[in-house]
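Protein folding task:
====================
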Amino acid sequence: MMNMKPSKTLCLILSSGLLSISALAQPSITGFSAASAAKQKQIEQQFDAGLSAERIGKNIKDMSAIPHHLGSPGSKAVAENILAQFKQYGWDAQIETYQVLFPTPKTRVLEMTSPGVFKALLKEPALKEDGTSNQEGQLPTYNCWSADGDVTAELVFVNYGVPADYETLEKLGISVKGKIVIAKYGRSWRGIKPKIAQEHGALGCIIYSDPQDDGYGAGDVYPKGAFKNEYGVQRGSIMDMVIYPGDPLTPNIGSTANAKRLDRLSAPNLLKIPVLPISYHDAKPLLEALEGPVAPAAWRGGLPFTYHVGPGKTKVHLKVDFNWNTVPAYNVIAKIKGSTYPDQWVLRGNHHDAWVNGANDPVSGMAAELEEARAIGELLKTGWRPKRTLVYCAWDGEEQGLMGSTEWVEDHAAELQQKVVVYLNSDSNGRGFLGAEGSHALETLVFEAAKDVMDPQTGVSVFDRKRAEEVASAATPKAKQAAMQEKDLHLGAMGSGSDYSSFIQHLGIPALNIGFGGEDPGGEYHSIYDSYDHYSRFKDPGFNYGVALGKVNGRAVLRMADAEQLPFNFAILQKTIAGYVKELSSTTDQLRENTQIENEVINSKAYVLAADPTEKEQLPKIKPAVPFIDFSPVQNALAELENASKTLNQYVAKTGTLSEKANASLYRAEQQLLSATGLPRRSWFKHTIYAPGFYTGYGVKTMPGIREAIEQRDWKEAQEQIQIAAGQIKQLAAHLMSIAQ
């Protein structure tokens, strides 16, 4: 077990007086009068008293006792357990079922056919130290949404398989066309690796976990330590979710039993090549046999031999095929009707399905959500009722591509856009630091709540501990000084990878994603070793960060439910977007300068080579010059948004609150940032400020239409996307001004 004490640097920062214990200094709650804030604090103290680390631990143990992937008997049993708990706590709960496509493997073969012969094991062994690692019903190691395929070809090592790695291969004169590639997990979402390989003409893709990143290079391996042992494999979806998530056959509509479905082979978010994940035990013979150039220094991993790129004599045979079945996805939806504004909904969600037992992912977050629901049920017994309706959700099929949440959102889209005030998400949870991302207009809500919750290890607020961590981890003295002077924390921007995506990026519903981590080591992710035994030893011993998660999310839920004035501050959003635009402008200027320098170097080399006819060096092509990009439309729109948000804030400060109708307009404001046509080449994603990157997957691209056009050097599209983003920002400004008026 790792040392649970914070680092010496962190302790010095916490004890130096540079960071105050914010909770002691916070006199009020945004959105509440002084009298109602005092009452709200009392309610939150009662809520806290209803949270139990012991019960959270029991729920983690019970729900991770059996494999419970989408469509399995275990998934239904876990959903029914969650349903029964919600009902026991006084919630009106039901299961909403969708019928979704879900492939499971029939055949998995990976073997080296030359220069030697080797057949991959493709199995994780049971361990005596892990009580659930030997169970029947475990999904085998595979990548969901791989195409059926049977290919034999030369092998090429592509490092992490991201676009920059293919640029390096091009410089080395190596093509992957007609080859099978092997890539390391890491540096991008797994689905990006086969996507880029397919675009470059590869016939198949193998993904492995290198021990330098996710094994003995990081620490002792399981069961001695937390990290991935030589047989551990990361299962996972490779659906091209940046096109659209959910059931690939029902984009934009809920996958009900009678829904009209696409032909599977024409689904635009499914890849066309076979893909398979393997352990570093199975990767070792394949990589060791490779010839060709020695891999660049940055590409080399932790296996005990020289890494080569290939190709050469090393050939592999990859065969996979699947059962393409339609299975039920069980979403549990629980409600407490609001006493004053029943048609304004505060949503809270976490998924319940796992690749195998899933103690960490997702049960740790689901157990915290259930404990919140129980504590809210105890408040009901005192006569308290929320002013706004609470809706607590447990999603199925998240692991395969955000299936349960996306289908529910698509099925209820019009109602949700009218009623949902905010969606609060969590997923896996562990020991360490607060992490929060989401709609920037809700930044105050999150961090006021964080100031009122004490960190289980240090005794300061989770807000202050996070600030201390940002100071301690600053990369340069200048950055450290800036972090020490910063009084606030800032929300991260949302990419993808969990169930918030459909709410914010498709419907424009304000969303937050909150969790803890950073001191919860492990290589158990999506393996059979994501178990109660692993979690209780390494991730959150004592389950105290489950309680911390419940306290932060619970406060956010309760404050949004009972606020007299919904605590949206669009001035923060305006400032954040302005920062993105400034960054994009600087990036474009830097790209223009770099392109000019690179072209001058190429021209100089060409002049030298022209004087020596024996020289055969291939030079890169001259890149077109970067033209002037006019950011003034979006800058002018931001000036309008600044004025509108300031006017609205002044009006609220003067009057103290808004009418019910105006509050409803306030939480629908983010919908003004949706583009009617969606992002280029992926119209399902409509938010003009936040989206997962086309080549990053989970990773966010802010101002995605503009940013990705610049990255692809499509200057016409960049200028078009500036106009589109400017139009939506102006629309938001007009919407806010109409509320103030």
